[in-house]
Amino acid sequence: SRGLGDVYKTQVYDGTVFPEQFEDDAYMFRLLISRKPQDCDETANSESWLVLPVSKEGKAKFLRELGVESFDDCILIAVQSMEQNIPLCVKDLSQMGILNSLAHRMRDMEKSGELAKYKALLDCKGCKSLDEAVLLANGLNSYELYEEPSTIIEYAKYIFSQEYRDVIPERLIAHFNFAAYAEELYTEGDLMLTEYGVLKELKTEPK
pTM to 2 decimals? Predict the structure, then answer.
């Protein structure tokens, strides 16, 4: 039997083993939810995965299938996500409202092409609470993600080509010190290297 102290996991869990990932990745978060132990019937379906984002109707359907009236009759067993920071901030079902709201926002980011930037920001800044994750989402427009460069030097070459390729003769480019230029950009530009690309914090001009 599993005790409440050792059933909370941040990995994928199917009740027996922890596989690496789900076959279906069309979700932001999955919550493994169980009826409270005193309400569990070994012959009934006592736990199930809830996919976020979820609608009000979807939550009601989930509760009916689990055989409970509300999430107050349930406990959170595990959280699974393709993002590694946010699940560590989720401790119980009282946070499901804000997590579901954030999942909806992340789905909108996915549609607008900004989800990678949000993941990069979380990767750099981290978050110790869901409130911090929301604040980072609110400040997403203060950053720009360059997805192609995988190093700061590659980023320097990209910026150089954008700004100077029509100014400096091509024969001179081979002699340009991109390492020094990259160091200068890194010092001045608030750059962060992530697995999603180079993240740059945009500076606001003083009024």
Answer: 0.72
